[in-house]
## 1
Amino acid sequence: MLGPPGAGKGTQAARIAENLSVPKVASGDLFRDHQARDTELGRLARTYMERGDLVPDDVTIRMVMEWVEAHEREGGFLLDGFPRTLAQAESLDAMLKNLGTPLERCVAITVDTDAVVQRLLKRAELEGRADDNEETIRERMQVYDNQTSPLLEYYGNGGILATVDGMGGVEEISERVKTALSGS
Ligand code: ADP
């Protein structure tokens, strides 16, 4: 699942994973879990996350690869928020090629930036996430534009990109995602 912060990736990822009965993981959740357990990786990630910057590729890739290795025999899986850079995408491709299970689809959720900032500010109030303040939100948007949006072209060229309009109600968007996933 690809999309800017606040696009509703997490909500849709949970629904798809349930529909398809496959395990899913969000890289942001893995980092937050490490922080909660106060691991070395958690402490490293915190400095980047608090600024709204990406955690360095090497540790991010290693962390997600470990998750993939632990879950790749469960009939498929869904990744939310990973890859977020070209280096991450290339590492993932290489690993999945080795496992003989290439990536089948990249679902990209598109949204209106202003609407997303409003959504995130609301989430900040409701959930009190440390990185949901206006300055960090703007930085995360910038990081998405600079480092993650090139993946749209990468997966478009790979012929596996499905773009879904992320504006609207949760149910409505879920239907769009389902349609996008069922198409060839
Ligand atoms: P959002 O999509 O709203 O930014 P996430 O929970 O996906 O929220 O990510 C929160 C933070 O975790 C990011 O700002 C970044 O610091 C870190 N992070 C998550 N996924 C990655 C990734 N694939 N590569 C590098 N950093 C990541």
## 2
Amino acid sequence: MSSSFFIKTFGCQMNERDSEIIAQSLQQHDYVEALDMDSADLIVLNTCSIRAKAEQKVMSLLGYLRKNKKRNPKLKICVAGCVAQQEGKALIERMPHVNLVVGTQHINQIPALIANTDKHSQVATELKTDYQIPRFIPETETHDNWEAPQFSGGKRPFSKFVTIMQGCNNYCTYCVVPHTRGREVSRMFKDIVDEVKVLVESGVQDITLLGQNVNSYGLTNQVSDDGSACSFPQLLKKVSQVPNLKRLRFTTSNPKDLSHDLMRCFRDLPNLCPQFHLPVQSGSDKVLKRMNRKYTMEKYIQLVQDLREYCPEIILTTDIIVGFPGETEDDFQKTMELLEIVRFDGSFSFKYSDRPGTSSVKLAGKVDEEEKSRRLRLFQNRQNEICLDQNNKHIGRIYEVMVESGSAGKYQCRSITNHIVHIEAPSIFEPGSLISVKIHHAGHHSLQGKVL
Ligand code: SAH
Ligand code: SF4
Ligand code: F3S
């Protein structure tokens, strides 16, 4: 009888994509997906360690799983992803009921490694520089005879993530990613285009290309068989030409090396969605310098102006950290001023969190928790007001939206601008359907539309 698996994913889109790859490799080794965690023979936690809170969530779930293991001693528990990469063997010492710890570059070896865990737990966390990102289509199969295995962990069947590079060489002083994902490695561009073709042919309409800093795609290793170069804007052009691809997006981009070639893609590529996530982190040059972000506020504001010139309707979102070590009230006010200057359509904002192995741990001037919470509250309150103002501008506009979930009566859809659009309609729309709606109401984080 075949064994069953259940994957719980934490963290960013790259982890979501990795979970699909894990599911696929397990399915190729005769595992079937379990309906829930409690009935699975193998539980995989694909983890995130970006902030202390993310790691705590993993640890408390692992604590809870002790009970499952007592009830079913044959249960296997695998910890994959960024916490696994950082903790390695130490994780098994803290949590002896874990059978396998798999780092970010070993996820496709899970079936083989788990088979060796009957007597002893296993750890695979070596980080290589010549690492190859696993292919979605297995090496042994061609694009023509291959059918994607089903995995219900993929939240939106008509939208898929495609990893184009992994790792990061930027070493922002607060960030664990260079430590958990290793050095920057770009995939061969042909592999990426092939993967997008297969996905689109199987019905996917919305593709998001993933990398920690897509601007440096193709800069650190060869990405074509003949050694010719391919920059990120060139890759975007090639992907956008895949027949029948409706919507193309990408994330994330570091402002330090955002080029005009890339900005022009928003003007020139018709299926590239007019939305851009451009994390700024802080509005103070002093703080940006201590974060090792390598740009100034002036440069960031100029980039936003240029971007809006190329594509006036572009939707701009960002990430902010408040309470970075040494951030004074004056520095924080500069972040608040930036909000008024740029008027982001949305943002993700976080309290600075000390992460093991990062250099900001040693910086002086730590801001206390209460003060970080106060700054976060002030930031989010003002950003929410701006979100509402920005969203109100969409009232009266007509968008083609893609149905993501819901049933006759109420549906949740997504626009090219990446807004969630709620609609009420008595008709039956399958997920993935594209329908025209007119926006009649705006909230802080979503829009409402009427079917035309
Ligand atoms: N590669 C992306 C960021 C990925 S991490 C980029 O460079 O833009 C996602 C976000 O988490 C970051 O943009 C940052 O705002 C936040 N973050 C990362 N490390 C953090 C830390 N130690 N404390 C608080 N927030 C952090
Ligand atoms: Fe982290 Fe900076 Fe790399 Fe983004 S660019 S992943 S914030 S080190
Ligand atoms: Fe988290 Fe790792 Fe992504 S730390 S944000 S899962 S790269």
